[in-house]
């Protein structure tokens, strides 16, 4: 390559005006070649620059579209709290343009001195650490306060120097409204569930009252009959005593005694009084049982005889059934366990009632209740097997679901078994359903028995 100072390149005058003296053609060619190279480099740089520019524009457009699409607000501010940039969401809420907001203090976006002080503290005092979900009131374009949940993150430059904060915020008004609506719906649901539970309780109470009424009817009519007889006897005894006090002759008195059948009255008095006492005693027992049933939630830890509870449940349901419902009870007594006798009574009544409901249209509705005691594990399994149609195999997995019922609308809440399942579980037991090979349904309730108190 030719260089200045080379002999051939000495500059001098040639014979032609405008030509440099002593410059050879090859030098010119060299220069032209160089210029070509530079020009082509320039062209390449221009193309690369244009490509980079296009990419830059594309990414700027992308960032802009993201910022515009954001429903959360975004504010970038310096260490002194001066706003450097905002996104359109903030413009919409405040009603101010990004230009007018730039340079102003971020604290002025908030309503009230407290919120402004709090923001100042968060952004300057704690300016180097993150802030999460801090709720402050933002001043809206109409002057109202919009609750916004803010998050702040410090912003650093390339060498790690703190440059200010990036603040994002989510208006929580809508969120809160949605939450309140959800809460309201949840409360309504809970209330409805309570009402349904209550109506299930009322339904089983209705069945119980029917059974109890029937059972009370017996001793009460017995007592009433006896008391009426006693009153008649009292009248006759009064008449006879009147004759005695009137000093009638022994013959007259003997006549009176025979006519009023005083001897028979005297013979009858004892059994009548005995019978009345027995009837009253029976009534007391029934009332006792009823009291135990109504103590549903009061005493969950009493010791009671499960056999007696089952027997009472059978009696009450079958008496209310008012048809020949044959219940074969084959369980050993006593079966002492600990828990709530009232709740257990509700379970047993549900199981017996379901069996009755499933068999009531049959000629001979039958329920067999048996018990298997396992002394080693101190538990008893009660088995309720009826001669009804059984449970559809597809329904077996759902019979314990709340509100599952195959009964016509208005005739079953579908809560009986769900409640029973919960009660048995709370007593440390298990309730299961199956179909017997003969066809009827089988419900098995396994429950822990009370530990035996050692004899002393
Ligand atoms: N012994 C049974 N034989 C056949 N199906 C039964 C038997 N017991 C329960 N079921 C089925 O299980 C369903 C749920 O029973 P559950 O006791 O929970 O509610 P329900 O009896 O329908 O209503 P409620 O108890 O409020 O009267 C019944 O509708 C029935 O389909
Ligand atoms: Mg039921």
UniProtKB/TrEMBL annotation:
<feature type="domain" description="PAS">
    <location>
        <begin position="59"/>
        <end position="114"/>
    </location>
</feature>
<dbReference type="InterPro" id="IPR003594">
    <property type="entry name" value="HATPase_dom"/>
</dbReference>
<feature type="domain" description="Histidine kinase">
    <location>
        <begin position="211"/>
        <end position="451"/>
    </location>
</feature>
<dbReference type="Pfam" id="PF08448">
    <property type="entry name" value="PAS_4"/>
</dbReference>
<dbReference type="InterPro" id="IPR005467">
    <property type="entry name" value="His_kinase_dom"/>
</dbReference>
<dbReference type="InterPro" id="IPR035965">
    <property type="entry name" value="PAS-like_dom_sf"/>
</dbReference>
<dbReference type="InterPro" id="IPR036097">
    <property type="entry name" value="HisK_dim/P_sf"/>
</dbReference>
<dbReference type="Pfam" id="PF00512">
    <property type="entry name" value="HisKA"/>
</dbReference>
<dbReference type="InterPro" id="IPR000014">
    <property type="entry name" value="PAS"/>
</dbReference>
<dbReference type="GO" id="GO:0000155">
    <property type="term" value="F:phosphorelay sensor kinase activity"/>
</dbReference>
<dbReference type="InterPro" id="IPR004358">
    <property type="entry name" value="Sig_transdc_His_kin-like_C"/>
</dbReference>
<feature type="domain" description="PAC">
    <location>
        <begin position="132"/>
        <end position="184"/>
    </location>
</feature>
<dbReference type="InterPro" id="IPR003661">
    <property type="entry name" value="HisK_dim/P_dom"/>
</dbReference>
<dbReference type="InterPro" id="IPR013656">
    <property type="entry name" value="PAS_4"/>
</dbReference>
<dbReference type="InterPro" id="IPR036890">
    <property type="entry name" value="HATPase_C_sf"/>
</dbReference>
<dbReference type="Pfam" id="PF02518">
    <property type="entry name" value="HATPase_c"/>
</dbReference>
<keyword id="KW-0597">Phosphoprotein</keyword>
<dbReference type="InterPro" id="IPR000700">
    <property type="entry name" value="PAS-assoc_C"/>
</dbReference>
<protein>
    <recommendedName>
        <fullName>histidine kinase</fullName>
        <ecNumber>2.7.13.3</ecNumber>
    </recommendedName>
</protein>
């Amino acid at each position: 390559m030719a260089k200045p100072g080379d002999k051939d390149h000495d500059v001098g005058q040639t014979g032609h005006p405008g030509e440099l003296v002593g410059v050879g053609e090859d030098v010119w060619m060299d220069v032209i070649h160089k210029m070509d190279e530079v020009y082509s480099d320039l062209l390449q740089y221009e193309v690369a620059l244009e490509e980079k520019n296009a990419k830059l524009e594309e990414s700027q457009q992308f960032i802009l579209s993201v910022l515009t699409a954001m429903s959360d607000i975004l504010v970038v501010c310096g260490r002194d709290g001066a706003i450097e940039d905002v996104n359109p969401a903030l413009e919409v809420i405040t009603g101010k343009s990004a230009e007018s907001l730039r340079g102003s203090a971020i604290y002025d976006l908030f309503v009230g001195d407290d919120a402004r002080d709090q923001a100042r503290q968060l952004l300057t005092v704690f300016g180097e650490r993150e802030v999460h979900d801090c709720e402050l009131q933002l001043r809206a374009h109409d002057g109202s306060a919009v609750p916004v949940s803010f998050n702040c993150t410090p912003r650093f430059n390339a060498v790690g120097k703190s440059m200010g904060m990036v603040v994002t915020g989510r208006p929580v008004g809508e969120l809160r409204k949605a939450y309140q609506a959800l809460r309201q719906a949840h409360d309504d649901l809970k209330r409805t569930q309570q009402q349904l539970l209550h109506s299930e309780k009322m339904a089983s109470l209705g069945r119980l009252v029917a059974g109890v009424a029937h059972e009370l009817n017996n001793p009460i009519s017995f007592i009433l009959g006896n008391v009426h007889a006693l009153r008649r006897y009292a009248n006759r005894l009064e008449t006879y005593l009147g004759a005695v006090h009137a000093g009638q002759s022994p013959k007259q008195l003997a006549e009176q005694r025979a006519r009023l059948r005083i001897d028979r009255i005297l013979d009858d008095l004892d059994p009548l009084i005995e019978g009345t006492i027995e009837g009253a005693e029976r009534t007391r027992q029934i009332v006792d049982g009823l009291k135990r049933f109504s103590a549903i939630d009061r005493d969950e830890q009493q010791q009671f005889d499960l056999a007696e509870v089952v027997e009472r449940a059978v009696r009450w349901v079958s008496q209310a059934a008012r048809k020949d419902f044959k219940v074969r009870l084959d369980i050993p007594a006593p079966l002492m366990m600990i828990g709530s006798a009232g709740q257990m009574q509700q379970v047993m009544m549900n199981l017996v009632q379901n069996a009755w409901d499933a068999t009531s249209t049959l000629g001979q509705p039958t329920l067999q209740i048996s018990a298997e005691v396992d002394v080693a594990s101190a538990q008893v399994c009660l088995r309720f097997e009826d001669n009804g149609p059984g449970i559809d195999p597809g329904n077996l997995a759902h019979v314990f679901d709340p509100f599952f019922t195959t009964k016509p609308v208005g005739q079953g809440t579908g809560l009986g078994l769900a409640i029973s399942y919960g009660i048995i579980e709370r007593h440390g037991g298990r309730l299961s359903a199956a179909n017997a090979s003969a066809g009827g349904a089988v419900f098995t309730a396994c429950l822990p028995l009370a530990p035996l108190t050692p004899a002393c």
